[in-house]
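Rotation project, supervised by the postdoc (A.L.). Task for the rotation student: set up a whole-complex structure prediction and record inputs and outputs verbatim in this book. Inputs entered:
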Amino acid sequence: MRTHHCNELRSANIGETVTLIGWVNSARDHGGVIFTDLRDREGFTQCVFRPEENSDAAKLSHQLRDEDVIQVTGKVSARLEGTVNAKIATGEIEIVATELVIVNKADVLPFQLDKELSNEDLRMKYRYLDIRRARMTRNLRTRHRVTKATRDFLDEQGFCEIETPILSKSTPEGARDFLVPSRLQAGHFYALPQAPQQYKQLLMVGGIEKYFQIAKCFRDEDLRADRQPEFTQIDLEASFVDQEDIIGLVEGLLGRVFKEARDAEIPASFDRITWKEAMNVYGSDKPDRRFEMKLTDLGEVFANSSFKVFSGALASGGVVKAINAKGFSGITTGQVEALTQTAIQAGAKGLAYIQVRGETVDTWRSPITKFLSPEEIEAMKSALQVEPGDLVLFGAGPWEQVCEILGRVRLAVAAMQNLLEGNEELNFLWVTEFPLLAWDEESGRHVAVHHPFTRPIKEDEPKLLAGELSTDLRAQAYDVVLNGHELGGGSIRIHEGALQTAMFKALGISEEQAAEEFGHILDAFRFGAPPHGGLALGLDRLVMLICGEDSIREVIAFPKNNKGSDLMSQSPAEVDPKQLRDLRIQTVKKPGTPTAPAGA
Amino acid sequence: MRTHHCNELRSANIGETVTLIGWVNSARDHGGVIFTDLRDREGFTQCVFRPEENSDAAKLSHQLRDEDVIQVTGKVSARLEGTVNAKIATGEIEIVATELVIVNKADVLPFQLDKELSNEDLRMKYRYLDIRRARMTRNLRTRHRVTKATRDFLDEQGFCEIETPILSKSTPEGARDFLVPSRLQAGHFYALPQAPQQYKQLLMVGGIEKYFQIAKCFRDEDLRADRQPEFTQIDLEASFVDQEDIIGLVEGLLGRVFKEARDAEIPASFDRITWKEAMNVYGSDKPDRRFEMKLTDLGEVFANSSFKVFSGALASGGVVKAINAKGFSGITTGQVEALTQTAIQAGAKGLAYIQVRGETVDTWRSPITKFLSPEEIEAMKSALQVEPGDLVLFGAGPWEQVCEILGRVRLAVAAMQNLLEGNEELNFLWVTEFPLLAWDEESGRHVAVHHPFTRPIKEDEPKLLAGELSTDLRAQAYDVVLNGHELGGGSIRIHEGALQTAMFKALGISEEQAAEEFGHILDAFRFGAPPHGGLALGLDRLVMLICGEDSIREVIAFPKNNKGSDLMSQSPAEVDPKQLRDLRIQTVKKPGTPTAPAGA
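Outputs recorded:
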């Protein structure tokens, strides 16, 4: 139906007769002659309908409206001098049409395609039109390049892509599952997988050695922020490997992906930092290191302070830390209030600060300087390299909490200061040695930080086996971070029954419970499980960052909104009562209150 | 953890010190010295533990049992003359071990890996062990090669892989949906997609032009025969194309796939046959043409027969047809009975046959020859080229029914005669011009043969628009067939609102119903939908045929059994009542009878 795409023709083609097909991007009447920009997936070509070439076609061209689908045959001609359009690849030529077929007329669109649209509901309702916009088309094609480069690279490395089930089993650990009622086995349910974790480990037991999958995963969470109920991960696992092998593999993979999808060279290997160091210095397990503003420990400065908020925190085993926001002493009262809210949401009682307006303390603005001795102030200035114009922000309390509070304040300050405006850096980082266990106040037990199959570091293995539990135990678990976003993470796994049993015990999972919920995994470990480990990368976020977008919804063809709805197809929806009868389920209006038997 | 894989070392490596890791495939004691075949994903290498090299390792080697994971370091050595094993790639050498690490001990396996196992339940329960068998590993790797070749080819052709949602919308047309209750919108349900049909058409409206996806699809059907509740298809769609374009594309795709996954050259283009011809000649819409035994029309022969079963069928507008099973006059009574059952299951009342034992009718064995005149017998012999030793099988009745009956009988006879034993032919075929509509007796209306978006052939378009409905209307729908298996099918779609409306009307779908169920598709057609069409290939079956397997379960890592169960992970399973409360659903024991409110 075409001889060329709309981005192909150049001066060298002048004189050729060609056929193009696509959408009318615009139709303009210049002195009774219609000019259109014809658009297809690849670009634009100007077509002109002159009565002297074909009077019927010229007449018909007056009916053209935006987004009509048309087929144009004509001769490639040079544009008149002064009408060359350098903005498009075919700007030197135009098609002088000899034939015009209107393939499909279009109604007036609900929104214009060449303008950014802030009404996301409208975009989503007409997603098939939204996708026609150059930005969305480009994003989806970039996503394709990312998955293609991933598959090419992993295939070359000997990895085998294997599909694991979507109709899977509910696992009690982890997030909330989506359930699928079974009709053939009434009262029983499949669950959609949160990740193919168990399957990929079982493939390692199965001797596959190198597995990957670009896998759909599902979590039935409340959809705050930028989450989707279904998301995609690049999931990989290998046998006979250690952490170094996985790290090297993923660095190679990301290098290939950024090269092919964004034409960017990234470092062959990334910096590494332990989780403890990341928390201590950046107050985050996914530090954004494109700017400094590090957390500085002030324990020595305030150990004996008469300011009890500081000295009291230290006395009870906590810390006092601060960040220096260079040049931000002019912060507004509203901004201070916003930062204080950020700190409070992270668990602080308030936020102590000093606006360092001049050289001397009397020029400063702060609610706390009056409590500090001149020696403390000097020591603090020295520790933080304070200069006039700076803003100092403090945290005091338990170590991890203070780190988190200041980590969030640090990011909020950077946003207020526009520190990253125009910054094109791609700052990759490995965060290693995550804790193995965390303490869950609510249930009064340890929980797995990564998941129950994560291996402790060699040095801490005996402690786990001996039941000497603490949150100091470190795991062979690692995250890869880009510009403050977690791209993905993984771990080396436990492959021996004894160590796995010790881990379940550490998590307060009884033998019976373990046998019931993880029986097949424990069984598998008895039959010659190889050492193995892996990692998963969040594809949606990776593509989002490569495309320079702020939301994963911009890189998903048909995303759900924050109520889990697809506004285009109107899903989820009510269903025919017969479908529920077949499944032997019924809906309840309030917990425990049955509706009338469905359709009975 | 290794320097080489277990298939790599050759005589050229003799003298090198290497490290291998893998599973003990067997351990044998020869005069106090242990020999093992060490196995990894790639192959086998013999290792020998001589006390003179390392007495500790030699001692430890006596503990080795099948499927232990071990790491062996040693020197590559020539095998003694007479002990070279030509069956394995590394058969010229062995590793004389200097170190042995038992990485993970294995219990005795529930079954042996080197024997075929008929107990499929046992295989499925321990699927992770079943996958260690060479055949399963090979199948899964072939599957990976098929998907990789597919992606490479379609990427080169400008196709863009786009993920469509798994949490999708229930569609009333088609098979039964799996449902997923929504927690955020109680009483509402997602459905798992039976195919990404609507999404891919909407992507065409979105200007993507060339889409593909290796897509998970779901059908909640009773799992007779070789079906799975979730299956995978190679799904593709393109704009500005006609049937020729899709056919050419898929021929190229299959050529690439068979080359890369099976090293087989297949024809650059496949034969084509219309649906009508396929039914008429082979009695099947997916004919196996690797053998003849064509259906022959005997209408002229029996038009005036005194055998009323034949002449009556003809008089009422039906047909009389027969097949000649060459050389099968010696069929047993039991086989005749089995063929008769096949015919009856296909809708016949019985199965008329002639065992042509000799030249003359008096030597024949048949329940019907006594009713036939000598002229009829001569004409039949001539039409079917009957020779002594043949078996003739008849069908009489309505055309489509007779075709189907004889088509199934034809396949059953070929199986009884072992006609395809040792046949390595790959016989590809396009079946075109499927009917647009079928008549559904039960609902008393026409239904879509392919789906409601399928386009009629140009010639039949006016009839559909005018509401002149019949099952004679032909569609631009096509199937690709390999050796009697449907590999896949597709169609050119309707892209105009008026034609789609006529199609819905033909299917008895009211305007309100169409608006409710397909509103977004009908909307989309108003905004400049391009002409488009596509096809989907069943990946599981394609890989099964490439691997030479008889069941798709042999090419799926973790399949379900015919009750929809995964015996390994025990899914589907009962769930925590809290999960159901969160979803505001409850199970009912019998339709209409609520259980006690879940956990209340």
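Student's summary: Chain A touches chain B through 131 residues (CB under 8 Å).
Supervisor addendum: Residues 11-104 of chain A form a domain with the OB fold (Dihydrolipoamide Acetyltransferase, E2P) fold (CATH 2.40.50.140).
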